[in-house]
Design brief:
With 91 residues, this protein is mainly beta. It is built from one helix and six strands, in the order βββαβββ.
Length: 91
């Protein structure tokens, strides 16, 4: 699989580390309920179809990248720097 890094261009996926669902960018506040933290830390979806994942360009520029991809076809639909992504539910 090839991933387009917004800073380095197209690279082999072995240069990146997959870190999970991009929803991880929506970290609960420190004062959030224990149930909210439990859901954030332990409950994960495993959808078939389009997902937004967080990847780290470990053997490249060191950027955090949100990759929109299809888990069925393995097609990568979009990539963007995580610092530029506004997730639903954030201010």
């Amino acid at each position: 699989m090839r991933i387009h890094c917004p800073l380095c261009g197209e690279r082999d996926s072995r240069e990146f580390s997959y870190t999970g669902d991009a929803k991880l960018l929506n970290r609960p506040s420190d004062e959030a309920d224990l149930d909210v933290w439990h859901d954030y830390l332990h409950l994960r979806d495993n959808p078939a179809g389009e997902t937004r994942d967080l990847w780290y360009h470990a053997m490249g520029c060191g950027s955090w990248i949100v990759v929109t991809r299809n888990t069925v076809s393995h097609e990568i639909l979009a990539t963007e720097l995580a610092k530029d992504v506004k997730m639903a539910g954030t201010v």
